[in-house]
Amino acid sequence: MNFTSGKRSVRFRGFSAAFMLLSICARGDGADRNVTAVAGKEATLPCECPPDDPPYVVWQKDTGEEPLVVNSLKEDDKTAPEYHDRTELKLETGNCSLVFYRVLPSDQGLYECYYKTKPLKHDKIYLDVTDNPQRVSDLSIRKTVVSSSVCGILVIVIAAAAVFVGITRRNRHQTNGFPQSLTHPRPRRAGSFSWFLSVGRQVNRVDPHQVLRVKVMTPVWLSM
Question: Which CATH superfamily is domain 28-131 in?
Answer without folding.
Answer: Immunoglobulins (2.60.40.10)
